[in-house]
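BUG-191 | component: ligand-complex export | severity: low

The export step for flavin mononucleotide jobs runs without errors, but we want the raw record kept on the ticket for reference. Input record follows.
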Amino acid sequence: MELAKAIQSRQSINRVKPDAVPDEIVEEILESAVHAPNHKITEPWHFHVFIGKGRGEFARARAETAQLQAEEEGEDEEMAVGRVSRERKKAFRAPVVVAVVSRGGRDEVETTENYAACSAAVQNMLLTAHSLGLGAIWRTGPVAYHPHMRDFFGLEVGDRIVAYLYLGYPDMGERPRRREAVWGKTDWHRG
Ligand SMILES: Cc1cc2nc3c(=O)[nH]c(=O)nc-3n(C[C@H](O)[C@H](O)[C@H](O)COP(=O)(O)O)c2cc1C
């Protein structure tokens, strides 16, 4: 697929088929990530691939996190049971989930730039998935950043969860794109 077309036609795909995605396709998507620009060649990314039954580990961590959140918020037991169950199921919304982690740097600037590099890596992955006929969505949210998820991934100070990428074969059509024209977001400085 031509690059400009891939960029313009990529969309977040939140409904995918349960059909398995071959490892080679997942590997191609991961490979595209590591070509992203990264300052001082820190190569700050780390990937966790949850595939097939392996998604159970991710589901368990999400469910435990939801339970802790319910306790922290003083939610009643019945509500908490529903919340935990919904969180567990979210791990199975796609046949493959890739968690992208950014490593902390030697100082705050490097940590920020590492996170930026990982965001570029995620966009590479989204575009590669799209060009290979897969649907993908970048998800995060409060559960993603909870200390229990950090422990699950063994994160150290400065490390950050960047994305959970849900991948699978699309089970939905295109939507109209909502974007303001770029001229409204641009100031040209010509001297
Ligand atoms: C950092 C980040 C976090 C996101 N987290 C979520 C999320 O938790 N749930 C979700 O439905 N979409 C999430 N998205 C996807 C955006 O909602 C989506 O990109 C946006 O609606 C624009 O749609 P498009 O990707 O089809 O252009 C996230 C995107 C980014 C960049």
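Assignee comment: Attached the raw record above. Residues 3-52+94-172 form a domain with the NADH Oxidase fold (CATH 3.40.109.10).
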